[in-house]
Design brief:
heterodimer, A: alpha+beta, 22 helices, 18 strands, globular, B: alpha/beta, 11 helices, 13 strands
Chain lengths: ~575, ~290
């Protein structure tokens, strides 16, 4: 038994690393603990990449110093509500541990309590049944523990107890028959920390584990047409095993992961200190592999054309030995091809460069989809921040967007309720500009807000006008349900077409047309509609939805825009 | 004793009968259409319809400012008759006519030391510029001296509202009246900008609205918000159009609902301005209560 009467910086680092590993192992599980019957859950990914930020912290003996560095690392990488809350929890802990070389059980308990307070401070309207409840309840009562290991044991048990009760606190969880995903992530983290502190083995990350946690119905993620015709969107099953370069940072890996996640689906990505394993269905296998070479040396690759069975870069079923020899033989050719492709990849941004200010105003908008990015630029955004499918960029991404504006005042359009907090944190980290975060929670609201901006007005007035403009437009989003759910206003059956308005599912019908018609009625009449059709949706089909609106609403102007967004095949703005 | 004439360039965009109604004199601007020069005589030589149709077919257009010599010739005739001159120019933020007219006035003052020649920069354009000229005429009719009228004009010009919704910004960009960034709006999202005149007398985007229908509603809403006396506004309000009378009538109807007492006049966005705005688009011009533009 390892002595944990007190814990110093290095020991705490070991524990935290265990927590991060455990959290990463549970990433997909967390992503799937999703209350919404749309597969937009990315709590696991968000918490995991946030926690990863701690790995930037340098080792040191002082627990106070180490925790401060780890918390700051997490802060920079934090994304999503749960991620931001997690990073603030550690920042709170760091404040309590400040000046300490090592912590005894009481100091650790006090630090956990301070962590909860730190996390609470950032949440405008705290709700029971969330990660915050778990953070509070796990350490609220006094614990008489002889060492940190026991303390964490008790804290973990309490956290698990309260997590199991979250469905009773939040009706949305109960309906979806899940526990709170953020709370679960926090429990994973505590569990990993306890295991690592005790010197016990952490769960191995395997493909099968990650694969098992994938949603059973992956088709729900694909746009409608593809489901109907059962086409393959991404034709090449691409796998690679890499020897991780010693200088490859976790940040670099996270960045790579984000980059390729937009290039395909069915992604499974596992990495540890030495190896990186990648599996993805994509149309750009060479680009993916070229990008991967920056992270490590290729040990093994496999590219298989899923449209043409049994053919491909390497014959399916080939012995591993043969694969190796083929790579060796073709190594030079392959390297040549990959380096050519690698040159075309986007260059990393230099975050240490001095910020430049050369204009009074700028707008930085979080969005996803090529067409949506164009739309934002036309509406006046100087910088578009690629939020990825789930619209959850990291704080660093937002900072890059703010700096790209090179403006005295920058209005940030988060365009997702889970990005507002990250945007506010990013604002604090950009002291060179007066950053105002507009309360736009959909891309539609963001475009409206951008249009509300006027360079001749002052900053405060613009902020007000932009918030007003954001609130003046209605966003109607359509997708297919991934599972049955009993919502407040409507009963959702798996695979039905659901329509979302004001963050609530208000229609669920067997056909898209019915769902659009039902939601249009609930939204009330408007003068102007814009139909943004998503990635993989055919223009002709979208035109029919536009025609449906013209037929339903008298005298309405309807515009069709190829938004290219991934999560919702159709988003309609009514204004 | 009205011993002075009130003159302006033809870009006042008033009808010949309005020029007569307010006893104004005008000096024609020159515009070029497909390489041929025309004098802008308020649509008499070339009708507005013909002009815009030719332009819509892709004709190259440009305007030429009035030369100092032309002003000298124009002013000299009236000075020889023993009349003083209050000349109102198009906004100096849009055209160089103010400086040419001022130069002409300075030259002529030597030749006619006893005559008064005052040049007022209207800071306005189109029928908004016309409203400033009309206001001078009304003041003269009410007995104001040339100096008094000029002084009042300096105040009045700030109260004239211009609200213009063009449908094709490419022309304004080509004419250098809007920056590329401003001209880029629209397109993909069908964004219609509402253009006004800023305190420097230049065109500026007041707001952006999606779709023509909403833009027209917004024109009426802004008119109610800005018109002198609000809903009781009973003065002249110009609804001008660039070869789209149907749109102008729709807007006039919307304005009539909110400003029932307004003297609504439907007019044209004239040739000189039209060279820059292109076919399509509706503009409102009216007097407000305050020196306000946004």
């Amino acid at each position: 038994m390892i002595d944990t009467k007190t814990v110093n910086g290095k020991e705490f680092e070991k524990a935290l690393a265990g927590g991060i590993t455990y959290l990463k192992a549970g990433e997909e599980t967390l992503n799937n603990l999703n209350v919404f019957p749309v597969p937009d859950g990315d709590t696991g990914t968000n918490m995991s990449s946030t926690a990863n930020g701690a790995l930037h912290a340098a080792s040191c003996d002082s627990i106070g110093e180490y925790t401060a560095a780890a918390a700051s690392g997490m802060m920079r990488e934090s994304r999503g509500n749960s991620g931001v809350i997690l990073s603030l929890f550690f920042r709170g802990m760091a404040k309590a541990l400040n000046g300490l070389e090592k912590a005894d059980p009481q100091a650790m308990l006090d630090a956990l309590r301070a962590g909860y307070k730190g996390a609470l401070s950032a949440v405008a309207k705290p709700m029971e049944g969330t990660i915050l409840t778990v953070m509070r309840e796990c350490c609220s009562e006094d614990i008489d523990a002889p060492d940190i290991s026991h303390l964490l044991g008790v804290v973990l048990a309490r956290a698990e107890d309260v997590l199991a009760k979250t469905p009773d606190m939040l009706p949305a969880l109960k309906r979806a028959k899940v526990v709170d995903s953020g709370g679960q992530g926090f429990v994973f983290m505590l569990k990993g920390m306890k295991l690592a502190l005790d010197g016990e083995e952490l769960p191995a990350m395997t493909d099968s584990q990650a694969a098992a946690a994938k949603p059973e119905d992956e088709g729900a993620e694909a746009p409608f047409e593809e489901m109907a015709e059962e086409e393959i969107t991404f034709g090449f099953c691409t796998e690679a095993l890499l020897d991780r370069n010693s200088d490859t940072s976790d940040e670099g890996i996270a960045e790579f992961r984000r980059m390729i996640s937009d290039m395909g689906d069915s992604m499974v990505f596992v990495s540890d200190e030495e190896l990186i394993k990648l599996h993805i269905h994509t149309n750009e296998p060479m680009t993916v592999l070229a990008a991967a070479t920056a992270l490590g040396q290729i040990v093994k690759i496999k590219i298989e054309n899923m449209r043409v069975q049994h053919t491909g870069f390497i014959q399916k079923g080939a012995e591993e030995k043969e694969e190796r020899s083929l790579i060796e033989k073709g190594g030079e050719v392959l390297e040549g091809i990959l380096s050519t492709v690698a040159e075309k990849l986007p260059k990393k941004k230099d975050r240490n460069a001095e910020p430049v200010i050369n204009k009074p105003y700028g707008i930085a908008a979080v969005c996803e989809g090529d067409g949506m990015m164009d739309a934002f630029r036309q509406a006046g955004a100087l910088a578009v921040i690629d939020g990825g499918k789930s619209m959850n960029p990291s704080i660093n991404d937002i900072i890059d967007g703010i700096r790209e504006c090179e403006a005295e005042t920058v209005f940030v359009l988060p365009n997702n309720k889970n990005t507002v907090m990250a945007a506010e944190q990013a604002a604090q980290l950009c002291p060179e500009s007066d950053v105002r975060v507009i309360k736009s929670v959909t891309m539609i609201e963001g475009i409206s807000a951008a249009m509300g901006f006027n360079p001749v007005r002052g900053t405060d007035e613009n902020e007000e006008m932009m918030n007003q403009a954001a609130a003046s437009v209605k966003t109607l989003s359509f997708s297919r349900a991934a599972k049955d759910a009993e919502m407040e206003d409507v009963t959702v059956k798996k695979k039905q077409y659901i329509g979302i308005l004001g963050g609530k599912i208000l229609s669920s019908e067997d056909t898209l047309e019915q769902s659009v018609a039902a939601l249009l009625e609930k939204a009330g009449e408007a003068d102007f509609y814009t139909v943004y059709y998503g990635h993989g949706v055919k223009e002709n089909d979208a035109a029919q939805i536009a025609a449906l609106i013209e037929d339903t609403v008298e005298d309405a102007e309807v515009v069709l825009v190829n938004g290219g967004q991934k999560l919702y095949p159709y988003i309609i703005s009514a204004e | 004793m009205s011993d002075y004439i009130i003159s302006a360039e033809s870009t006042v965009d008033l009808l010949p009968q309005e020029i007569e109604e307010f006893d104004l004199k005008y000096i024609p601007m020159t515009f070029t259409l497909n390489g041929v020069n025309y004098k802008d005589d308020l649509g008499q030589t070339m009708s507005y319809d013909e002009f815009y149709e030719t332009m819509a077919k892709g004709a190259e257009t440009k305007t030429t400012s009035v030369a100092v010599g032309e002003y000298i010739d124009f002013f000299t005739g009236y000075l020889n008759e023993g009349l003083d001159i209050l000349h109102v120019t198009m906004s100096s933020g849009i055209s160089s006519t103010y400086s040419q007219a001022t130069s002409a006035a300075n030259i002529l003052k030597e030749e006619f030391p006893d005559r008064k020649i005052l040049v007022l920069d209207s800071m306005c354009a189109g029928a908004g510029f016309g409203l400033v000229a009309e206001e001078m005429s009304v003041l003269r009719k009410n007995g104001a001296s040339i100096e008094e009228a000029y002084e009042q004009g300096l105040i009045f010009r700030r109260k004239v509202n211009h609200l213009f919704v063009p449908t094709d910004l490419e022309y304004l960009f080509k004419g250098g009246r809007l920056s590329r960034t401003e001209a880029l709006v629209g397109g993909l999202l069908n964004i219609c900008p509402m253009i006004c005149i800023d305190p420097q007398g230049k065109l500026a985007v007041l707001m952006k609205v999606k779709g023509k229908k909403k833009a027209f509603k917004e024109l009426a809403a802004q008119a109610l918000l800005r018109a002198a006396g609000g809903a009781d506004f009973d003065r002249i309000l110009y609804v001008c159009h660039c070869h789209c009378i149907d749109d102008a009538e729709k807007v006039a109807e919307l304005v009539r609902e909110v400003l029932p007492k307004a003297q609504i006049r439907i007019g044209n966005v004239g040739l000189a301005m039209g060279c820059h705005s292109g076919p399509g688009g509706v503009a409102l011009f009216f007097a407000g209560d305050r020196e306000t533009w946004i």
